[in-house]
């Protein structure tokens, strides 16, 4: 009777570990996803902007009272430049996220354009598409792309040699 209970407990522990590792993988994937990171930074940016505006308002009110001679400058005010620096740092992070997302999209579009048919992988057997290539077809396509790239490279080399040859004076003593 103890053996089945032990097996059930072991299965539950294994399922819990699998769920934990899956959750860790998802969180790591989300950390690298620029769109997800962008969405996570937007609330921080809003909060930082509110902080910048509040500090600017407080500093303006404080400076106005000093200019009007109502108060002396004894009261401490928050530093505007620090909050503005934090805001700009978040803006820079958002810009990087957007640039990375754009590069990922461009790479995906180029990949689909130059290699529209996918090769089924062993890790995702359920996502096999009807138009996917066999591995041998994929290899032949890659070999033809490499041959084409070599031909272009050789043509550019020949052209550069011809241009370099025309630039040198002939028969100099």
TrEMBL record:
- Primary subcellular site in the record, as a coarse category: nucleus
- Which InterPro entries does the UniProt entry name for this protein? Mediator_Med29_met (IPR021018)
Q: Would the keyword Ribonucleoprotein be found if you checked this record's keyword annotation?
A: no
UniProt keyword terms in alphabetical order: Nucleus, Transcription, Transcription regulation
Give its localization: Nucleus
Which family, according to UniProt?
A: Belongs to the Mediator complex subunit 29 family.
The name this protein goes by in its record? Mediator of RNA polymerase II transcription subunit 29
- Per the UniProt entry, what species is this protein from, by scientific name? Huso huso (Beluga)
Record lineage: Eukaryota, Metazoa, Chordata, Craniata, Vertebrata
């Amino acid at each position: 009777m103890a053996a089945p209970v032990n097996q059930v407990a072991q299965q539950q522990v294994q399922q819990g570990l699998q769920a934990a590792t899956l959750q860790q993988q998802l969180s790591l994937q989300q950390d690298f996803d620029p769109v997800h990171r962008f969405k996570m930074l937007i609330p921080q940016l809003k909060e930082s902007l509110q902080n910048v505006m509040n500090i600017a308002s407080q500093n303006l009110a404080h400076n106005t009272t000093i200019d009007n001679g109502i108060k002396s400058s004894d009261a401490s005010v928050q530093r505007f430049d620090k909050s503005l620096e934090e805001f700009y740092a978040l803006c820079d992070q958002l810009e990087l996220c957007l640039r990375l997302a754009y590069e990922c999209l461009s790479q995906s579009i180029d990949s689909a354009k130059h290699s529209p048919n996918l090769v089924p992988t062993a890790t995702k057997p359920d996502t096999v598409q009807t138009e996917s290539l066999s591995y041998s077809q994929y290899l032949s396509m890659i070999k033809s792309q490499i041959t084409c790239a070599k031909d272009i490279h050789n043509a550019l080399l020949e052209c550069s040699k011809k241009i370099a040859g025309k630039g040198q004076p002939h028969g100099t003593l």
